[in-house]
Amino acid sequence: MLTSLIEKARDHYLQQLPFVLYRKPKEAKINGIFQSDDVLHGVTDFSESGFVFAPFDDDDTVILIKVDEKLEEIIQPAHIQATLDTVEVTDDVFAKGAFVDMVEKAKDVIHSGDIEKVVVSRKKELPVSASAIDIFMKLVGTYENAFCYLWHHPKIGTWLGATPEILIKSTGNSFTTMSLAGTQLANGTDPVPTWGEKELEEQQLVTDYIGRVLEGKVTKLEIGVKESVRAGRLWHLRTKITGNFKKGELGSLIRSLHPTSAVCGIPKDRAKKFIMEHESYNRLFYTGFLGELNLTKEFSRNSNSRNQENNAYRSVRTATELFVNLRCMMWEPGKATLFVGGGITAGSNPQKEWEETENKSQTLLKVLLD
Fold first, then answer.
1. Does 272 or 366 have the greater pLDDT score?
2. What is the mean pLDDT of the chain?
3. CA angle 232-236-240, nearest 5°?
4. Which of 30, 103, 282, 309 has its CA 20 to 30 A from that of 134?
5. What are phi and psi of 130, to 5 degrees?
């Protein structure tokens, strides 16, 4: 079961060298990128190549792990899987009170007209005995539709996650992004959820905002329809957005999108200011982004899979695939710090917002406490 890839990762961790393991949504293989020294590289203009890890605060440095070695292995059927049952945890009365107060303050600011929406979050610390690699394998085995990763740099730390949200995918000068907002706990009896006014409003705010920030910067901009997508035991509302950008403008496009209104708020600068002033901790890489930047890949020139002769002709291009760092944790030996949050609008109910963060924490609790 992934013998050489896992052993390579363990060896890198013991030597305190940077590496990342990751599995893309719905793929049957795990990728590993390994850097041969412990140098802390930063991104300057997104023309670099490697695996990037960006913090929430867009004024801070984006970290780059260079591709000194890249491995991949197919996942075997006997992969580790966590339970999908709800994990019961003791309610933290102090944390709940502080979070509810923050939601009330956010609603006051929204009603004043200063902000349309703001995303507030909290962290949750708990003891763990499992290794980072064992947790990663449970994430991979449990969340087929998510981008699952284990990232380590000796000068930064160790992070893991299973995120459903794409920040941007690009090949050549074409790109895809998405607005993802609204959360509902999955009910086994309903094939798709019924969305309330608050969730529909929140999702539309995010979609409209992305359309505004991209206007004039891209061409052939197309905004899709709302759709319900499932990630584990949670449903989300999603709208796909596509278009083209000019050569050399990938960095500008990424900076326009990050931090997204789905993890920060609208307008971005005012929402970010509220977050910095009222959240009682540093988000670090939670609600940042991560993924492949300008990696070389082969693409078939023929879309017809039946035409085997033309399939032999393949083109080599650079591609970027970045994900928003949701449903994530910072891992240390013996301890994990989880991060959860939710979007606040004028119609938010503070008690329900707390419950939503508890539901979101289940994604990681299932692989830590089962």
1. 272
2. 89
3. 120
4. 282
5. -75, 150
Is pLDDT above 90 for 324? Answer: yes
Does the structure show a pLDDT above 60 at 84? no
Contact 181, 262 (CB under 8 A): yes
> What's the helix, strand, coil split of the chain in %, to 5?
30, 35, 35
Side chain identity at residue 279, one-letter code: E
Which residues does residue 318 pair with via DSSP β-bridges, in sequence order? Answer: 296
d(C-alpha 30, C-alpha 20), whole Å: 10
3-state class (DSSP) for residue 211 = helix
Q: Which of 8-12, 284-288, 359-363 has the lowest mean pLDDT?
A: 359-363
* Tokens 């930064």 sit on residue: 156
- Which of the four pLDDT bands, split at 50, 70 and 90, describes residue 85? low
CA–CA distance, 275 with 122 (Å, rounded to integer): 11
Would you state the pLDDT for residue 189?
A: 60
**What residue segments make up the domains of the chain, in order of their start?**
3-301+311-369
Please tell me the pTM assigned to this model: 0.88
CB 38 within 8 Å of CB 16? yes
Cβ neighbors of 304 (< 8 A, separation 6 or more) are: 310
Q: How far apart are CA 313 and CA 306, in angstroms?
A: 14
**Tokens coding 74:** 């197919």
Q: Where are the beta strands (DSSP E) in the chain?
A: 19-23, 29-34, 41-42, 50-54, 63-65, 69-74, 117-127, 147-153, 157-163, 166-171, 174-185, 219-223, 227-231, 234-244, 265-266, 289-300, 314-324, 328-332, 335-344
At residue 70, the 3 state secondary structure works out as strand
274-286 tens-digit pLDDT? 999 999 899 999 9
Question: Could you read off the pLDDT of 246-263 as tens digits, one per residue?
Answer: 999 999 999 999 999 889
Q: If you classify domain 3-301+311-369 with CATH, what class do you get? A: alpha beta
Q: How far is CA 283 from CA 120, 357, 368, in A?
A: 10, 15, 21
